[in-house]
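Protein Entry — a single chain follows
Next Lines — sequence and tokenised fold
***
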Amino acid sequence: MTPNRQTGSGDFDLTMDELRVVARYVVRHAQDVLHVFERAVPDDPRPRAAIDAAWAFIDGADRTNRQRVASVDAHRAARSAPTEAARLAARSAGDAASAAYLHPIARASQVGHILRAAASAARIGEIAAGGAAATADALLERSRQEATPALVGVLRRYPPAPGGSSRVARLMSTLDRALRETADRSPGPTTGGRAAASDRAGTS
């Protein structure tokens, strides 16, 4: 396994272990909605390749050009996807691969690399439920519960996510606020995560 070295210079330090925590959180959400893209575009392997690249890094491989290329390819797949839900699913896969390169720069824009996939998954669920906001709220709550203290610790090094005009941006801001408020109320560990044995389901 790669030594737990720090990333390059920035406003603060991020270790490889911390980047893997972020990548794991992102890829779980991307993996949950990958089928939405693959059902819409069954012959395009790029988002799945991005998820596989993310898992390679999470499992201990060095971050390499594999993650960069897979992320770009998945985002290209997102741009050509036929529906909003499929676009969001492919973009989430790209976000999972690029999480290995989260920048240690204190800018609110970086929060998207941590939480956008969770917000996108909530939006996809909302779309599937006919636009029911309660579905998105429930999925955001699940994402809040799954965030580990280590994940929230990384998140809080960045400024809060700005609200935006898109539904995903608003959902991301809601999740960001909930995670910070939870950490403020309770300094102890939070309950989080699905069983490790289920993490890799659907990736092969």
